[in-house]
Write a structure and sequence with these properties.
The complex is a heterodimer of chains A (about 400) and B (about 70).
Chain A: H1 32-36, H2 39-48, E1 51-54, E2 60-63, H3 66-74, E3 79-80, H4 108-115, H5 121-142, E4 147-149, H6 150-155, H7 157-167, H8 174-186, H9 192-215, H10 221-227, H11 238-269, H12 271-279, H13 284-294, E5 300-304, E6 308-310, E7 313-315, E8 320-323, H14 325-328, H15 363-380, E9 384-386, E10 393-394, E11 402-404, E12 406-409
Parallel strand pairs in A: 2-8
Antiparallel strand pairs in A: 1-2, 3-5, 4-12, 5-8, 6-7, 9-12, 10-11
Helix pairs in contact in A: 5-7, 5-15, 7-8, 7-11, 8-9, 8-11, 9-11, 11-15, 13-15
Chain B: E1 5-9, H1 19-23, E2 28-30, E3 36-38, H2 49-58, E4 64-68
Antiparallel strand pairs in B: 1-4, 2-3
The chains are: A alpha+beta (about 400), B alpha+beta (about 70).
Chain lengths: ~400, ~70
């Protein structure tokens, strides 16, 4: 395997991340300018070339056009999903890392089908009243203050509590999860030990919940997975159940936290859109799609397995691909006025939830949470703005959203 | 009358984004996995033509055909 060609961590000096001076040949998605405002960077790259390469991260390509992103997302022959985050290290592949997001055909389909029924739009309708209640409980806690950090007090807790509710674990454990996810998705890009520690703690946490359900079965998503059969009719291995639980937690929290936060950030700065949604709450689902397009939180990754060519760029095995659905969604050849938020945009085939077989399993959950979170916020807090005394902080890495969002209202 | 429309979802392309079901619930249904198919034989009732085109133009997988009969 190509992995063994890489020196172990002890023998290697951690790579430096000097400031980028050439985005076309040396891009770095952890550069602070990318974190703060990636859109002009993607525009610069896209107008020069549909696919560029960096030597950082042991070699990585970046497609920025919708067509190139779509081609790679649909091509499971040349591109593997076994590593879904572009990081400094390429440690050994773990079996059942987080199926189905880390699965390739033919294992992918049966692993995904287990998870689809609990996440259909109809299933989400049953969860919706609880999510509405969560939103109002959160607003009650800061409403009298006239200000809040919406990222810390509102947007973070909605997906966390909702996924806890679905998994059948205490909503109060949410803070543990947020910390693990920060260690895995942000600090883990450059710190292998941090990532291992978080994955280990998360595995122990869920192993205890699985053991408890072996003694006393419950009616929740953990039990659903434990009772599921693989394509040979056998119960799933514990490592598969644990991997899928890791996925639901990691993929289900800071993604939607980011999407709701970016939406509130946009509305806080755009009174015309805010007032229109207050007047026309039935437009919120359409606006949610546009906010998902313009501020798509999730960038995925692929690993090149076989040599191929995408948009004229030869792609060689051993390199990663930073699969930027957010950049694809800003491609002006597909979306007129791509850099403008048009909250009633009619034609909007955005790729915020991915394209092809890895379409986000939680997309219906995310949409419902975003719609409910915006509707309930706008009902209670129709007039709000960014606090000029505070500052907005965006997450680093491959899930982008506000982690600090100071808002004034009333 | 002429210009009658029919919709069809290509099952090999549909990945369950469910945009069509959200935009045109009169024309599309989802199965237990959340993948879409046209309702009945896909005939678009008079007055819902715009919804058929809207569903097509929002499908990220280009899985929806609108057939003019």
């Amino acid at each position: 395997m190509s992995d063994t060609a890489h020196a172990t961590q002890d023998e290697r000096i951690p790579p430096a991340h000097p400031p980028v001076t050439d985005w076309l040949h040396d891009f770095d998605h952890t550069d602070p300018r990318w974190t703060e405002n990636p859109f002009p960077i993607w525009d610069e790259i896209r107008s020069a070339s549909p696919v560029v390469h960096t030597g950082r991260f042991l070699g990585c390509y970046l497609p920025t056009t919708y067509e190139a992103v779509k081609q790679i997302a649909h091509d499971t022959e040349h591109f593997s999903s076994r590593r879904v985050v572009v990081r400094d290290e390429r440690p050994e592949i773990q079996r059942n890392a987080a199926p189905p997001i880390t699965s390739d055909p033919p294992e992918h389909k049966p692993a995904k089908q287990l998870l689809l029924p609990p996440f259909t739009p109809d299933a989400m309708k049953k969860l919706e009243p609880r999510v509405r209640a969560i939103c109002n409980e959160l607003i009650d806690e800061f409403f009298a203050d006239g200000h809040c950090d919406a990222a810390a007090r509102y947007t973070k807790h909605i997906p966390t509590r909702a996924i806890c509710h679905m998994l059948g674990i205490p909503e109060k454990d949410g803070d543990l999860f947020v910390n693990w996810i920060h260690m895995i998705l942000e600090l883990g890009i450059k710190n292998e030990e941090m990532l291992k520690q978080a994955v280990g703690e998360m595995t122990d946490y869920f192993a205890a919940h699985i053991e408890a359900r072996k003694r006393r079965p419950t009616d929740d998503l953990i039990s659903t997975l434990m009772n599921a059969k693989d394509r040979n009719g056998q119960p799933l291995e514990d490592s598969h159940v644990l991997g899928s639980l890791r996925l639901l937690l990691i993929a289900g929290i800071d993604t939607t936290w980011s999407a709701i936060g970016a939406s509130l950030w946009h509305l806080a700065r755009t009174p015309a859109d805010r007032d229109r949604l207050v007047r026309e709450p039935q437009l919120v689902p359409t606006a949610v799609e546009e906010l998902l397009r313009a501020y798509s939180p999730v960038t995925m990754a692929r690993e090149v397995m076989k040599e191929t060519t995408v948009a004229g760029c030869p792609m060689k095995p051993g390199n990663m691909v930073l699969l930027s659905f957010p950049a694809a969604n800003r491609d002006p050849s597909v979306f007129p006025d791509a850099d403008r938020v048009v909250i009633d945009r009619k034609s909007n085939p955005h790729a915020a939830f991915g394209l092809g077989i890895h379409r986000c399993v939680g997309s219906n959950l995310a949409r419902m949470e975003m719609t409910v979170a915006l509707q309930e916020w706008l009902k209670r807090i129709p007039d709000f703005r960014l606090d000029p005394e505070g500052s907005v902080a965006w997450s680093e890495g491959t899930v982008r959203g506000p982690r600090q969002l100071p808002i004034l209202f009333g | 009358m002429s210009g009658k429309l029919r919709v069809h979802v290509d099952q090999d392309k549909c990945q369950g984004h469910a945009r069509c079901k959200q935009l045109a619930p009169e024309l599309f249904d989802l199965d237990e996995y959340g993948n879409a198919h046209e309702r009945g034989d896909g005939t678009v009732p008079a007055g819902l033509e715009d919804k058929a085109w809207l569903a097509k133009s929002n499908c990220p997988e280009i899985a929806i055909e609108v057939i003019e009969e």
